[in-house]
Design goal:
Bound molecules: NADP nicotinamide-adenine-dinucleotide phosphate
Shape: globular
Structural class: mainly alpha
Distance between the termini: 37 Å
Largest sheet: 2 strands, antiparallel
Radius of gyration: 18 Å
Helix content: 55-70%
């Protein structure tokens, strides 16, 4: 069964960049009324993202949570990220052109994905902790993964913070963000999120978390490229040296 889910995940990883490049997920600056019913985006973020740690924890319990230190560390990292994303981030969001709306289709897909992803990763975490020695938590790969996860988280939060400040300090709908990793990138929040999940994949050393990291990359990379073109079209003075999502490269 696990293998079937992984195959499904790989299909999603392959198709997502094509779909998200052609059809921009209808929220934020790409929100369109013709995508049907929409709901308040603060509520949407809470709803979509709370499901993920709940699914992960229930899955760990269902598949035989052993209480090992490895499992606890990984569940903690996952929950920590989603505590921020589900319960803090939504309250930072400021009113925008999109009138704080998110299409219900996006929300439903987000919920389904988070149930799927949380469950499969919960299973993988339990499985890895039964296979790995407790010494894994002092292994350089685990430690390096943890450090990359933490750096990604800081970059993600700091960039979210800069975006929020921009909307507080200006009456414009959108401005040119500056400071932090925005010196180099148009979407450093996405860059942080991507490296965060690659760090997690290293620390948890299983195929499900690698799939999540790859999926995050495939979902956010085309969106970052769209954001970058959008900034260049909207602001003629937009910094030329700034890249979309990978410093100095793309
Ligand atoms: N793991 C995953 O697969 C995944 C998927 C999606 C999102 N995420 C994470 O969720 C977070 C939010 O994602 P997002 O797609 O909404 O990010 P985003 O497009 O960068 O927007 C983030 C917030 O900042 C505002 N904003 C963006 N650019 C702005 C500007 N130039 N001036 C003023 N305000 C601006 C947006 O307002 P508007 O809403 O009005 O545009 C929104 O409230 C990110 O940290 C991302 O990494 C993760």
């Amino acid at each position: 069964m696990f293998n079937i889910f992984i195959i499904l995940y790989i299909v999603m990883i392959i198709t997502t960049p094509i779909l998200t490049y052609l059809i921009k997920a209808p929220y934020g600056r790409y929100y369109k009324k013709n995508w049907g019913i929409s709901i308040n985006d603060k509520f949407a973020w809470i709803l979509m993202e709370t499901i993920s740690p709940i699914s992960l924890i229930l899955s760990c319990l269902w598949f035989g949570f052993s209480g090992s230190v490895i499992t606890i560390c990984l569940i903690f990292a996952w929950t920590f990220h989603y505590f921020y994303r589900a319960l803090l981030y939504p309250f930072f969001i400021r009113k925008s052109y999109s009138e704080n709306k998110m299409s219900l289709i996006t929300v439903c897909l987000g919920i389904l994905f988070n149930i799927f992803n949380g469950t499969i990763n919960g299973y993988a975490i339990v499985e890895i902790s039964s296979r790995m020695d407790e010494k894994w938590i002092t292994h350089p790969v685990f430690l390096l993964g943890g450090i990359i996860f933490a750096i990604g988280f800081i970059v993600n939060c700091h960039s979210d913070f800069i975006l929020r400040k921009l909307r507080i300090s200006s009456d414009q709908e959108y401005g040119i963000p500056t400071g932090g990793m925005f010196r180099f990138l148009s979407s450093p929040n996405y860059f942080g999120e991507i490296i965060e999940w690659f760090g997690f994949a290293m620390a948890s050393w299983n195929v499900a978390s690698l799939c999540f990291a790859l999926f995050t990359l495939c979902f956010l990379l085309p969106r970052a490229i769209s954001h970058h073109s959008w900034y260049k079209d909207k602001f003629p003075q937009y910094p030329r040296s700034r890249k979309a999502i990978i410093p100095f490269i793309l």
